[in-house]
Hints:
α3 packs antiparallel against α4 (64-122). 2% of the residues are buried. The chain starts with a helix and ends in an 11-residue tail after the last helix. It has helices spanning 3-9, 14-18, 24-59, 64-122, 127-152. Helix content is 82%, strand content 0%. It is rod-shaped, with a radius of gyration of 39 Å. It is mainly α. The protein has a domain at 24-114: Helix Hairpins (Orthogonal Bundle), CATH 1.10.287.1060.
Amino acid sequence: xxxxxxxxxxxxxxxxxxxxxxxxxxxxxxxxxxxxxxxxxxxxxxxxxxxxxxxxxxxxxxxxxxxxxxxxxxxxxxxxxxxxxxxxxxxxxxxxxxxxxxxxxxxxxxxxxxxxxxxxxxxxxxxxxxxxxxxxxxxxxxxxxxxxxxxxxxxxxxxxxxx
Length: 163
């Protein structure tokens, strides 16, 4: 079975069929395979176009009928090439969209894990205890500042006069 028929008939692993569709990695791999196959076909058509052009030049004015036939084949190949270009653009767009969706899904999962971890960390915290602790810290800082101020003031040994 060719790659294209497998692609359209859903020829894939049994695991992907069992869970309702392919995984993003499987889909990306298939899209890349299809892109590669179409790129090879593009190269083939480009060489065919070159050959037909050479045949048309070779026959030129000597055998107009053969030259016209070669030009018609060339035109057909160019039409196929344009169709492949459009298909490749569509596949590339779809692949990029799938990659972005997969990235967004992973980011969302990780954000969910982080939220669960934060919830677990905050389970043992009580807001009232935190407020009390912060008040105690503030009081102790005030006491330390008062002590520091008291120590740093000069002792007034004879500097002050009572008039």
